[in-house]
Design a protein that fits this description.
The structure holds 2 protein chains of 2 kinds.
Chain A lengths: L1 E10 L2 E11 L4 E5 L6 H9 L5 E9 L2 E2 L5 H6 L2 E4 L6 E5 H15 L7 H14 L5 H4 L1 E2 L5 H15 L3 E5 L7 H13 L6 E6 L3 H5 L4 E6 L2 E6 L1 H10 L2 H8 L1
Parallel strand pairs in A: 3-10, 3-11, 6-9, 9-10
Antiparallel strand pairs in A: 1-2, 1-4, 4-5, 7-8, 11-12
Chain B lengths: L3 H18 L12 E3 L6 H10 L4 H15 L23 E3 L13 H9 L13 E7 L2 E5 L2 H6 L3 E4 H7 L1 H7 L10 H9 L2 E7 L8 E7 L9 E7 L4 E9 L6 E4 L2 E6 L4 E8 L11 E12 L5 E8 L4 E4 L2 E4 L5 E10 L4 E10 L5 E10 L4 E10 L7 E10 L5 E10 L5 E10 L2 H9 L4 H17 L4 H15 L5
Parallel strand pairs in B: 3-7, 6-8, 7-9, 8-11, 9-12, 10-13, 11-13, 12-14, 13-15, 13-16, 14-17, 15-18, 16-18, 17-19, 18-20, 19-21, 20-22, 21-23
Antiparallel strand pairs in B: 1-2, 3-4, 5-6
Helix pairs in contact in B: 2-3, 3-8, 6-7, 10-11
Classes of the chains: A alpha/beta, B alpha/beta.
């Protein structure tokens, strides 16, 4: 589904990704871990098409199509979803309206009919209940006055509504207490399917106790220096990142 | 290899440019035979206008007094706008489509004129008119058609052109015209009083709720003409009316002057809701052409518990200079001002309101939303005055600015004068920008940049739009989207 070859990315002239390779097949869950500044968020942003990143080499294929040529909204239309690390507020824009606009924009781009309003309401209430997200938050403006945990749950709610093919969760666990983490993990787990791939970008192993990844990759200095299964995350938890950095340097 | 960023910009550039250029939909000229005065302004011009209108002497005398006063006045320079000096001798002060002396029904209106209004989306044929809205259409200097006159007359409502009111209801016009905005009020009000050619007159008798929305569409068609109309609305005790005005003009390279005066009078328990959707031609991206919209609008809440509410959506004009105001004279009277003002390209707007609290327990609310894009300059200027007698008076002002891009500017000049220790005045102001983070967030969810901007802007204006009558709220929203297409890129 997703194939990243030799990806090099600069921000303001500074090299952040440095020959990154990654292949994600349909139905797989990949965790990308790494110390601060290793390029995790850059990878998420480049995949979603955020401006300000200069791709100097390499390619990204999504279902055999050059993803980097597409605008952020075109990528969304094709099924790429990014749960943001810091979801922004949209003052004056009602949360429910926003999510409906989003779904309908995607459906229109795919040549599908717009969502029936009644069905939409039923579905969003159901999904919000699963995520234990207060229905009042659906009526508020997008992320306005939401707590950190509410913002993250609102991201997963959008993911559940949009049913993406590839979901990238950028540090969705940061700033969450253990109960919120469980609820969110449950939400994400219920979205696992044979057609959907998930990339979990995270700093800590903690999230992976609740969402079991098929693969764990360690990102250091803009490259994946080690890949393994869930065991690798546990080793990282015990030994930290330094031993990998040292081995990589040697 | 090129980055995603570069690709996006290149892909988007052309359609956005096209949209900017095609932004003004009302720029057509109607080829119609007109009776137009040669350019120039003198006492003789005024005599000629007055003669054309077959006016009573008192109107002519009033015009001449205003003219002499105007000659002694200076073009004001305090507004935060820049424009070359206006040559008042270079424009024509009267232009009317040639027509029969008097019209008995719409069938007698020139089909070209009806077509022009149809193109603007304002069908004058009564059966097709907007649900329950009566329309007065002012083309250049004169009113060409007023619809639904009969059903209004049955309710006792007078809704006609100012010229007709002067002929048929002189005692009412004489009593109220100039009573809220005297001819000596300011430079452009004096000019208007001297040369006004038409406008709309509304009289709602005691206890009558006007059975439909009343509206006037102002259209400047002829080149090198100024439009100077007066609107006068009188709501007697216990009556109510909702009035809407819309404005458009062709695209022309030279600037044209629109200097109107609007006067509202509300007696005991009367309520007047005055809404404006102003879309005069704003000039091109370089600032060439466009309307100078220098307007004096004022309402007097003379009666107890009277209520005047101004709502305006200002998207057009090269320069907008207007302050729809309320004189809160009657005890417990209420004044409101809701405004959305958009400037883009080289547009400049200096707009706001004055709330003059005179009676006890008077209340006023000001909600101003300024949106600046391109090189637009947007200024809010407002005065809240609590006079000595305004015991327990209250004002709440909210003044928000939204900037799109980094070449535009927003300015705020609130003036607050309190001469009464009981009065409460609150002023809140914010300035914000649509951030790259917000746009990326929307686009990641599949929403195009244009739609994202319009969603955020409409959210920003929501409080004002909800004050507009339903159909016009929808129109205003569409107009805003059209105006801001391609404004961010």
């Amino acid at each position: 589904m997703l194939r990243i070859n030799n990806l090099h990315v600069k921000i303001e002239g500074k090299q952040i990704l440095n020959g990154l390779d990654l292949t994600v097949n349909a139905g797989e869950v990949h965790a990308i871990m790494g110390p601060n500044g290793s390029g995790k968020s850059t990878l998420s942003h480049v995949l979603a098409g955020r401006e300000g990143y200069e791709v100097t080499d390499g390619q990204v294929l999504f279902n055999a199509e050059n993803l980097l040529q597409l605008s952020p909204e075109q990528r969304a239309h094709k099924g790429v979803f990014l749960a943001m690390q810091y979801p922004v507020e949209l003052p004056g824009v009602n949360n429910m309206t926003f999510i409906r606009e989003s779904i309908n924009a995607i459906r229109r781009a795919r040549g599908q009919d717009e969502f029936n309003t009644l069905e939409f309401l039923q579905l969003i209430r159901e999904k919000a209940a699963q995520l234990q997200l207060d229905e009042k938050l659906l009526k508020r403006n997008v992320n306005a006055g939401f707590s950190g945990g509410e913002k993250k749950r609102n991201e997963v709610l959008q993911m559940a509504m949009l049913e993406p093919q590839l979901a990238i969760l950028d540090e969705t666990d940061s700033g969450l207490d253990i109960d919120a983490l469980r609820v969110i993990a449950q939400g994400v787990n219920s979205l696992r399917s044979a057609e959907r791939s998930i990339i979990l970008v995270t700093h800590y192993q903690r999230l992976l106790e609740y969402i079991q990844p098929d693969f764990v990759h360690v990102l250091v200095n803009g490259r994946i220096v080690r890949s393994g299964d869930k065991q690798l995350a546990l080793t990282l938890e015990q030994k930290g990142y330094n031993w990998i950095i040292e081995e990589d340097a040697a | 290899m090129r980055s995603a960023l570069k690709n996006d910009q290149e892909n988007d550039q052309t359609p956005i440019d096209d949209l900017i250029r095609s932004g003004y939909a009302h720029g057509f000229v109607t080829p119609i035979e007109s009776d137009t005065f040669p350019p120039g302004l003198s006492e003789n011009t005024i005599l000629k206008i007055s003669a054309k209108k077959n006016e009573p002497d008192w109107v002519l005398e009033w015009r001449l007094k205003a003219y002499r006063r105007w000659l002694a006045m200076e073009d004001p320079e305090w507004a935060h706008v820049k424009h070359p000096d206006i040559d008042f001798q270079s424009m024509s002060y009267y232009s009317a489509p040639k027509k029969k002396e008097s019209l008995n029904s719409l069938d007698e209106v020139d089909p070209q004129l009806l077509e022009a209004y149809n193109k603007l989306g304002i069908p004058l044929e009564e059966q097709k008119a907007l649900a329950g809205a009566a329309v007065d259409a002012v083309f250049d200097s004169v009113s060409v058609a007023t619809t639904f006159r009969k059903s209004l007359a049955d309710a006792g409502v007078i809704f006609c052109s100012m010229s007709e009111a002067i002929q048929k209801h002189p005692q009412l016009v004489q009593k109220y015209m100039g009573s809220v905005v005297p001819y000596s009020d300011n430079f452009y009000a004096a000019l208007n009083a001297a040369v006004f050619t038409d406008g709309t007159f509304v009289y709602i008798p005691q206890g009558v709720r006007c059975p439909m929305e009343l509206s006037t569409y102002f259209r400047i068609n002829e080149a090198n003409t100024g439009q100077f109309e007066r609107t006068l609305i009188i709501a007697e005790a216990g009556s109510s009316v909702s009035y809407l005005e819309g404005c458009t003009a062709p695209m022309r390279d030279e600037n044209q002057l629109h200097a109107a005066v609007v006067e509202l009078v509300a007696m005991d328990d009367a309520s007047i809701k005055y809404s404006t959707v102003q879309n005069w031609y704003p000039g091109d991206e370089q600032g060439k052409g466009g309307i100078y919209n220098f307007v004096t609008k004022r309402g007097a809440c003379r009666g107890k518990r009277s209520h005047i509410s101004w709502t305006q959506v200002e998207t057009g004009s090269a320069i907008t200079w207007k302050y729809p105001s309320c004189l809160l004279i009657g005890d417990d009277s209420v004044g409101e001002f809701y405004s959305v003002a958009v400037t883009r390209g080289r547009q400049q707007a200096d707009t706001g309101t004055k709330m003059i609290h005179i009676g006890a327990n008077t209340k006023s609310t000001i909600v101003s939303k300024g949106i600046s894009a391109g090189h637009g300059q947007n200024t809010y200027r407002g005065l809240v005055r609590m006079s000595k007698g305004a015991v327990n008076a209250r004002n709440h002002t909210q003044c928000d600015s939204l900037l799109l891009g980094d070449q535009c500017a927003a300015h705020t000049f609130p003036y607050i004068e309190v001469m009464n220790p009981d009065a409460e005045v609150e002023h809140e102001a914010t300035t914000s920008k649509i951030s790259d983070d917000q746009l990326f967030y929307c686009r990641q969810r599949g929403i195009s940049e244009e739609d994202a901007v319009s969603m955020i802007v409409n959210g920003f204006c929501k409080e004002v739009f909800k004050e507009l009558p339903m159909e016009f709220a929808v129109e205003a929203q569409k107009l805003l989207n059209l105006t801001l297409e391609g404004a961010v890129g």
